[in-house]
Amino acid sequence: xxxxxxxxxxxxxFIGIMVGCLLGGDIPYVCLMLFLLxxxxxxxxxxxxxxxxxxxxxxxxxxxxxxWAASFFLFKNRSPYFDAKGFIALTMLCFFVLWLVLPxxxxxxxxxxxxxxxxxxxxxxxxxxxxxxxxxxxxATDRPVLLGLFIILWSNDVGxxxxxxxxxxxGKHKLCPSISPKKSWEGLVGGVLVALASxxxxxxxxxxxxxxxxxxxxxxxxxxxxxxxxxIESMLKRSxxxxxxxxxxxxxxxxxxxxxxxxxxxxxxxTCIFILSLLALPE
Length: 283
Prior knowledge:
Elements: H1 2-23, H2 26-48, H3 54-77, H4 84-107, H5 114-139, H6 143-168, E1 174-176, E2 180-184, H7 185-204, H8 212-240, H9 255-279
Antiparallel strand pairs: 1-2
Helix pairs in contact: 1-2, 2-3, 2-5, 3-4, 3-5, 4-5, 5-9, 6-7, 6-8, 6-9, 7-8, 8-9
């Protein structure tokens, strides 16, 4: 009960900070997202590379932050030369430069497994910096919609937790027992239902500018991909032999523990919105 109260209180505080930064203008948004990016990359490198290796870690963090800042600037200005192809080109360029820098640096350092460290640095940028950069498709110009996506994702977490506790803990319908023994199919279904209801409510209140088909499709994708995002981070922690990625948020662990679902779900939702805008499907 004490842990639940701590988790609830810290969650409310963090959600308040998120809402304030998402609706408070460009500067609070940029500060929030760069804080999340740097924090999650730091946790990822701590889990994979381990202690020390500050030069490699710093290189990955600087490249990730630079990629995010470039994508924010380009999405914010909506340059006619920057579209989906432009984002792919930017990502490939950042990886190419990073690939040129890291192996050369490693050639002149005495490391036990230099190539593996290089792979970890690149993986962190791919796992964290690229998804957060893609979120700028909405975050740079339409943050109320991005907040709506966060609300659906948070609703999915609550629904999955409640339905899992009520119906899944004593059952045999485990979702992925080798990675996360507590997750159940009942929790997945419950999370999806609550996410769909939350998306429909936001649409009805005029907080999401989509029709019912688009809203429910996006809500479904958010819920399902969010579960897989959570499982991927659980796989990372199991590989590293730790329970939490960090200790920043009381009751929740680290930033990766709190935003693991968002790293996969939000880019998927942004891609869905981008495709729907291109297709201009009738509602």
